[in-house]
Amino acid sequence: MARRSINITINGLGRRLKVSQLLIFNRVMETGSLLRAANDLQMTQPAVTKVVQELEYCFEGELFSRTNRGVVPTDLGLLVARRIKSLLAELRLLADEVNDFRGGVTGHVVVGTLISASAHLLPSAIAALKRDAPGVLVTVREGPTVELFSALATGDLDIVVGRLPESELPISNAFPLSHFSLFDDQLCVVAGKPHADGLSAVTSLPELEGVPWILPPPESPMRLTADRLFRTSGLPFPVDAIESLSMLTNIGLLLEAPRVALMPHRVARQFVGMGLLHVLDLPAIGTFGSVGYSVRAGRDLTPAGQSLIARLRQVAGTVAETLHD
Q1: Is the pLDDT of residue 5 over 50?
Q2: Could you please report the per-residue DSSP string of 221-266?
Q3: What global pTM score does this model have?
């Protein structure tokens, strides 16, 4: 595409860009297909193609490369996409604030959850929010640590709840994040309740040599803790190991056969209370870390997001008390 000899200015963009174009562009980015985007938006493919061409003219360069399998963003397309995500997030914030101002407890909050929050903290906070404000839509997304924090930095998520990072995450071209601790948790070793009898006599980690384990995958921050625990206890790395952060999968595996896993104490207690897991009677295993929530620095949360954080703090106060029982 031939480039024009004018500079792009905010006034020029303001006159040429429409919100509907940004929504269509964002959907093409998410689907990687002009046809799928058109179907999702109930438009024709030529209409979607025309919008993309208008945006390419506006930004003076190709935003997508066409392939046999759809479209892939160019470097310019990736640059534009990052900013458009932020703009759409701000528009969602505006819509929520206007709705809240008009007197209805409404809105939409998109929250990412890590393993330490998915069993008790976040579900309890969401339940409390929905009791008071049933009109608030809550969307929950799970994923690896880096993926969730990257989505938070670009505005795809409003909040991430779970274990707070101990160091700066490798998130490039992103906005800074702010982290808030709610409580500290400890690690424990758990087994499935049906197989607890065979492990009830275990009183030290070295006695678990030869026992199958479920471990966090190498890219998980918790894996460093697990590796360090094996080294300091003199326990060799297990030959029979499964790497998984899927809570449902791990619970199923622990119920299926004799196998042990590391788990945050608060999460374990939730499943012990359900009669699914048993916590091995071992000396202090180590610190899991701080559990809390993260938001994008310098960005105001929607009223719905602020309400969820208020419930997170309420639930965390109860959690902190029970951890010392």
Answers
A1: no
A2: HHHHHHHHHHHHHTPPPPSSEEE---HHHHHHHHHHSS-EEEEEHH
A3: 0.73
